[in-house]
Amino acid sequence: MGRLNGKVAIITGAAQGQGASTARLFAQEGARVAIVDMNADKGETIAAEIGGEARFYAVDISKEAAWAELVADLVKRFGRIDVLVNNAAICPAISILDMETADFQAVLNVNLVGTWAGIKTVGKQMVAQGSGSIINILSTGALWGINGLGAYVASKWGLRGLTKTAAMELGHRGVRVNAIAPGGIASPMAGIDDLPREIVNRRFVRQPIARIGEPEEIAYTSLFLASDEASYLCGAEIVADGGMTIGRYEDFLPGAPDALVAAGKP
Fold first, then answer.
1. Does 1 reside within a domain?
2. Active-site residue, 249 included
3. Using an 8 Å Cβ cutoff, are 50 and 72 in contact?
């Protein structure tokens, strides 16, 4: 407890799922949390649940002016901003051949432009105060291709490059910029609400930790990067995917999971 005592944190996409778990954990660790989302009902509910100085902000993150208003309000209230978790994202499943320009641009506006605007606006405040931690939530989609998710994957590859560039520009000014690349996480984006967990976990039989991840597991990774314990990390990518992207099991070679060998799956 207390790993973020006295810190002020912004978490986007915090009205549900992974973002809400991160907001709860940060508050438990002593942070004053700004819950940023466009879903006012769920956002207000999370803020009320957390209590204390947690506050919900309805912000269109693709608009620089909206970011400027958020930063101004937080600085007026608390005098500083110490942590920014760029978690908000949208992920429509549309093939490249069927996607319209507006669909593609909508994903980029939230996932990439919105994160850039947050880095720019909050980063200025952090540079002025001489310290801060920015955490960009990537995806395994920033490490390889995923059919049906062309816009999402493009946005996350772009965010991966933006993270490294921001780390170079801000690191020597006291602001650390790092990223987390989650694998499959049991959040609303995964679309698994009505499925038993044992059914869902069948999708992950090919990875070393053969289950879907929990939102809290990514929240704890964000907590580490937000805390002073990560003071020497700059431009890092932490892949929290249960081993999804480290390789491919060959069931005919030693070391493959028994379940794959027994099923004769490649």
1. no
2. no
3. no
Q: Catalytic residue, from 152, 220, 232, 249: name it.
A: 152
Query: 138 lies in a domain?
Result: yes
Number of domains in the chain: 1
Could you read off the pLDDT of 29-61 as tens digits, one per residue?
999 999 999 999 999 999 999 999 999 999 999
Domain assignment present for 2: no
264 pairs with which residues across the strands? none
Please report whether residue 66 resides in a domain. Answer: yes
Query: Residue 220 belongs to what domain range?
Result: 8-263
Distances, alpha carbon 178 to alpha carbons 171, 189, 232, 253, in Å = 10, 22, 11, 36
CA-wise closest residue to 7 among 18, 19, 20, 28? 28
Dmax of the chain from CA atoms? 62
CATH of the domain at 177: 3.40.50.720
Per-residue pLDDT of 158-172, as tens digits, reads 999 999 999 999 999
pTM: 0.95
Kindly list the distances between the CA atom of residue 174 and the CA atoms of 105, 123, 128, 132, 169, in Å, as whole numbers in the listed order.
33, 10, 9, 7, 10
The torsion angles phi and psi of 60, rounded to 5 degrees, stand at: -85, 100
